[in-house]
Design goal:
The complex is a heterodimer. By secondary structure, chain A is mostly helical. Chain A is 74% helix and 2% strand. In chain A, helix 4 (80-86) packs across helix 13 (275-308), helix 7 packs across helix 8 and helix 8 (171-196) crosses helix 10. The chains are: A mainly alpha, B mainly alpha.
């Protein structure tokens, strides 16, 4: 910050003296540093160009093409096709299933994360052991979690009498247990960090003002925690939108397509003959991701302003 | 306050202490209950992995082990070919982790210490890649890798992840904590960019670099979508993908599929125990400032 201000001041003084532009540029951006920067940024920029930005461009190109049934040649058909895909019942049902998955997993993640963090945020002997246990699901991969729940839910061996994975009404809910459980560790770690950042004096002041534990929690802790809970919400929404392994391992989209989320449908459209539909659906997923990320960005900025007050 | 000072001091002290102890016991009860809920799926998994499948089914799938056979883990490990799959996972993970850390340190150095044109634009381009996760770019990236003949290869598994916006961001934050006096002193001592980076900046930002390294490793090892989509041969399956195929193929035999899950999870559990602090720091970097 201060070096920036210094830079501005230097520029202002320079402007009065007005040396030639070339020299001003040279002083502002020393050629040696610019060259070093180029060398430093080149590897990352190359990777991003090939695997992030070119694909984005390719998605828009592909979504306006139609290929023959072998995927060997394509022709331009226009962006009406993108609109057709994004309004098709296939796309909308995928998006719907993804949003339902969000509704199942995100509130549970927030509640469980807060509950565990509040319980484990105190000075007790052996509390570190509980903190490690509550964090432990971050170490289980989504594939491990899926296989564990596949075994739990399997009717041939399961704890439940009926097989939820075979019932269109329940399958997506049962699949979402994988994410609910696997999110516990991440949610716990994030909320606990938030709790540890709440100033102790504030809680003591509230106690002196005669606040009981419950009122103190809702009137002091939760408001102080709200930026962290916002952050966690965004993270959990993104995780839910990107859930793929649980569906792939537990149901393969079935029964009767009731667990085909948007991402699952995209993966099903990966071969070249269907690339245009897959590309259009990917643009839909990109749109959702964009909105969520922008929301996060706005919230983070707002928090920075609060911090400066 | 008033009542406690009126009562005999000794008795009030002991009653307060016993109330405190009672409340502590209450918290322990809650904590143990929550721990049991969190660990329940893991517990059942281990029970099923060690129980003899037939005897376990005859008993009606109880919550305790039935005629334990500890060999199930080794059988699953050998039968599933997990030695090979874990080697593939490890090589891929090391490539990705090393690549991400190296490119992120370089880029973070430029953003933290160097003056150059279009710096803000370049930084925005980096951060915008957070909106383009592999889930969104999957289909075109599969085409690219297929066109280059990189299906079933380490370059194919690792290349899309060799740069990281998160790593660049975190390490840049770490670099910005380097005092400017140190930069000036290093310059006076005739340190070039490379010497300043390796002798001053990286050692000072070590905690945040370590945190990013650990979560980068964790994320790469646990990947599912890309390693599954970009491989077609069983010999190129990572441990996660191998587990998915082996686990669902052996779901009926109960013990082998879940034993494989335990085998695949173990190395990362060890990592969690050793690097818990780094994992927590890496995961919470965006949530809590400071």
């Amino acid at each position: 910050m201060s070096t920036d201000a210094l830079g501005e001041a230097t520029v202002a003084v320079e402007a009065i003296r007005r040396p030639p532009l070339a020299r001003r540029l040279k002083e502002r951006y020393p050629p040696g540093e610019s060259l070093a920067a180029l060398v430093c940024l080149a590897p990352s920029l190359l990777v991003f160009a090939i695997f992030c930005y070119y694909p984005l461009y390719k998605l828009f190109v592909d979504s306006a093409q139609r290929s023959n049934s072998f995927g060997t040649s394509t022709r331009y058909v226009g962006y009406g096709q993108l609109r057709d895909v994004l309004t098709s019942s296939d796309f909308l049902s995928g998006l719907g299933h993804s949003l339902v998955y969000v509704v199942y997993t995100v509130p549970v993640g927030l509640v469980l994360g807060t509950l565990l963090a509040v319980a484990a945020h105190r000075r007790l002997r052996g509390i570190k052991i509980f903190q490690t246990i509550f964090s432990s699901t971050v170490a289980t991969s989504i594939a491990v979690a899926s296989v564990i729940f596949f075994s739990l839910l399997n009717p041939a061996s399961g704890l439940l009498k009926s097989n939820l994975l075979n019932e269109p009404k329940w399958a997506l809910f049962a699949v979402s247990w994988v994410s609910m459980w696997q999110n516990i560790g991440l949610s716990f770690i994030i909320v606990l960090a938030g709790l540890q950042a709440v100033p102790e004096e504030l809680l003591e002041a509230a106690t002196l003002d005669g606040y009981g534990p419950v009122r103190r929690f809702f009137k002091v802790t939760v408001p102080m925690l709200s930026p962290v809970l916002m952050f966690l919400t965004v993270v959990l929404v993104v995780v839910a939108m990107q859930a793929y392994a649980p569906i792939d391992i537990l149901t393969q989209g079935g029964p009767a397509g009731s667990t085909e989320t948007l991402l699952y449908k995209i993966v099903q459209h990966q071969d070249p003959a269907q690339a245009s539909t897959g590309a259009a659906m990917s643009i839909g997923l990109f749109g959702v991701t964009l909105v969520i990320t922008l929301l996060q960005y706005v919230m983070l900025n707002r928090r920075v302003h609060y911090g400066e007050q | 306050m008033a009542s406690s000072s009126a009562a005999p001091p000794v008795r009030s002290e002991s009653s307060r202490r016993s109330r405190l102890r009672l409340r502590q016991a209450g918290w322990y009860v809650l904590l143990v209950a929550l721990a049991l809920v969190v660990l329940f799926p893991i517990y059942v998994t281990v029970i099923r992995a060690v129980s003899s499948p037939v005897a376990y089914a005859e008993k009606g799938y109880p919550l305790y082990p039935v005629s334990p056979q500890w060999g199930a883990f080794r059988t699953a490990f050998n039968l599933g070919g997990f030695a090979h799959a874990m080697t593939v996972s490890l090589v891929m993970t090391l490539l990705i982790t090393f690549g991400q850390v190296a490119t992120s340190i370089m880029a973070a150095y430029a953003f933290a210490f160097l003056r150059f044109p279009f710096r803000r634009l370049a930084f925005a381009l980096f951060m915008a890649t957070l909106m383009l996760p592999i889930e969104v770019t999957l289909i075109p990236n599969l085409q690219t890798v297929r066109d280059w003949g990189w299906f079933n290869s380490y370059p194919g598994l690792a290349a899309p992840f060799m740069a990281a916006a998160l790593g660049t961001f975190l390490i840049r934050q770490g670099f910005m904590g380097v005092p400017s006096e140190l930069r000036d002193a290093a310059r006076l001592d005739g340190f070039g960019h490379f010497r300043f980076l390796t002798r001053v900046a990286v050692p000072l930002a070590r905690p945040v670099i370590a945190a990013f390294t650990v979560i980068s490793f964790l994320a790469a090892w646990n990947q599912y979508l890309w390693p599954q989509s970009s491989t077609t041969q069983e010999s190129w399956q990572t441990a996660q993908i191998r587990l998915a195929t082996f686990g669902s193929a052996n779901a009926q035999t109960l013990n082998l599929g879940v034993a494989a899950a335990v085998v695949v999870a173990l190395p990362i559990f060890a990592l969690l125990l050793i690097f818990q602090r780094q994992i927590v720091r890496g995961l919470t970097a965006g949530a809590v400032k400071g």
